[in-house]
Design a protein that fits this description.
The structure is a single chain. Helix content is 82%, strand content 0%. It contains 19 helices and no strands. It has helices at residues 8-61, 65-73, 79-107, 115-122, 125-128, 133-138, 142-163, 172-192, 201-210, 212-234, 241-271, 275-302, 304-312, 319-345, 349-374, 376-398, 412-426, 430-450, 452-465. Helix 2 packs parallel to helix 11, helix 10 runs parallel beside helix 15 (349-374) and helix 15 packs antiparallel against helix 16.
Length: 466
């Protein structure tokens, strides 16, 4: 029997989680500094430029990271040629995207909000096209990757703290990020020193074409994560975009831990020799994630006003109410992470695409209805409901792959979140919200008590199987 400290799951998780805590902490300090220095209006412009950058980055990435990670983890043949082909297609797309944004900045600047800011951000794609983070994960060199991520976050934070002092410094932000990205990628090459061959353009395009379902999935994910920002600006809520973005930055920091779990699970599931071991990994992670996120979401719901005031200051007072809505997105994201990882690790890319597509359609539809009526609160409600739909769909689709019992009482989580959202709409008084929040924590405690048998089973998985 292996001791807990020898578990590859636990060791990998602790390394990545520790680094992610540091990176998210540094990022949080950086975000707070930016919000305070730029003020809500310019902070909203920054958020819009980042949405444009995210869509461009997804196009360049092309869904290649997951199959590339899987290729490295499974020790695919002729790795130097594979790396060269990935670099070729990403580099070509990065140049194409930079040229496209430059053209839009010249001939259709209104589409970009702040054209010069958007162009400067897209320049970051040029070094990131040659990132080897997927190779480090596939080789399970997580400590090295964690160190690079911490160094990059420190460089970025230092630049922001020293250079960004007023709203007039807005365009210096992407330049700081560009410098950090260049050093980040250079560090990867120094650590790995990959062998390369001459790329095959036809083979490169073939690899990219095979990854189009994952690219479509990534775009659909981005739609229900960031399309609300575009619609808020389109429907005339640009002045409130800074408040919404501030709340969403807090949520993004928390959702980052879900990314950590997926980054650890994917290579482990891909290398698992049997369905039984895959099931054990998913069961272990699923149970503990639900316990932690329910308690954390309830606590942040109660303390939303204090958290937003502490991080951003009194100028961002409207952020607290938005945060009380958006916090339930964290719960829905963590619910679906183990099952989404299982789908991706077993090559069920199209099934994953259909689930994410459902969420994107639901998100856009709800946003079109709720944003004109409720503004930023409507966007928050649409995001939570759409993520709950994706979580349910992925859980059901992954059910044939996951042979162990899935507790149906976890489906009460989104119902509980929707009830608290309705309380927010009907009784906006802070006193009532606090009472509702503490009542929610009591309900969470009762849920955990009811599932004590599941908790004991998870503990046995930890001690015996790993």
């Amino acid at each position: 029997m292996k001791r807990i400290s020898q578990s590859p799951l636990l060791t990998s998780f602790l390394v990545v989680a520790a680094a992610e805590i540091v990176v998210r902490g540094l990022g949080f300090v950086t975000t707070a500094r930016l919000a305070q220095a730029l003020l809500p209006e310019r902070f909203g412009q920054l958020a819009f430029a980042l949405v444009i950058f995210d869509y461009c980055a997804l196009t360049m990435e092309g869904g290649l990271s997951v199959p590339a990670l899987r290729y490295v983890a499974q020790k695919g043949a002729n790795l130097p040629a594979f790396i060269a082909n990935v670099f070729f297609v990403r580099g070509f797309l990065a140049l194409l995207l930079v040229g496209t944004i430059a053209g839009l900045a010249e001939f259709a600047p209104a589409l970009l909000g702040n054209p010069s800011l958007s162009f400067l951000y897209v320049l970051i794609l040029l070094p990131l096209a040659f990132s080897l983070d997927w190779m480090l994960r596939g080789l399970n060199r997580l400590k090295r990757l964690a160190g690079l991520n911490i160094v990059r976050a420190c460089i970025y934070m230092s630049g922001i703290l020293f250079l960004i002092r007023s709203p007039q410094d807005l365009e210096k932000v992407p330049l700081v990020a560009l410098g950090a990205a260049v050093l980040y990628v250079a560090g990867m090459f120094l650590l790995i020193r990959p062998s390369l061959t001459r790329p095959n353009p036809a083979q490169s395009l073939k690899v990219y074409y095979q990854c189009l379902p994952l690219l479509a999935s990534a775009f659909l994910i981005s739609i229900y994560y960031s399309f609300d920002t575009i619609l808020l600006k389109a429907f005339g809520y640009g002045s409130e975009l800074g408040f919404y973005s501030a709340a969403y930055k807090i949520i993004s920091a928390l959702v980052g831990f879900a990314v950590v779990v997926q980054q650890v699970l994917l290579p482990l599931l891909a290398r698992s020799p049997s369905v039984r071991q895959q099931n054990a990994l998913v069961a272990l992670v699923q149970r503990y994630l639900i316990f932690g996120t329910l308690a954390g979401a309830g606590l942040i719901f109660v303390l939303a006003k204090e958290i937003s005031g502490l991080v951003y200051g009194p100028a961002y007072a409207p952020t607290s109410l938005i945060l009380q809505f958006l916090i339930w997105q964290v719960v829905t994201v963590f619910i679906n992470v183990p099952y989404a990882s299982l789908l991706l690790a077993t090559g069920q890319n199209k099934s994953y695409l259909w689930c994410v597509g459902l969420g994107a359609i639901l998100n856009v539809s709800l946003n079109l209805v709720l944003i004109p009526a409720l503004g930023t609160l409507g966007a928050a409600i649409a995001t939570v409901i759409a993520d709950a739909g994706v979580a349910l769909a992925i859980t059901l689709v992954a059910r044939p792959l996951f042979k162990k019992y899935v507790a149906l009482n976890w489906l009460g989580v989104p119902v509980f979140a929707v009830l608290l959202i309705l309380v927010n709409l009907i009784f906006p008084a802070q006193l009532f919200l606090r009472l509702a929040g503490w009542l929610g924590l009591v309900i969470v405690g009762l849920i955990l008590l009811y599932n004590r048998r599941e908790l004991r089973l998870a503990s046995r998985f930890m001690s015996k199987r790993f």
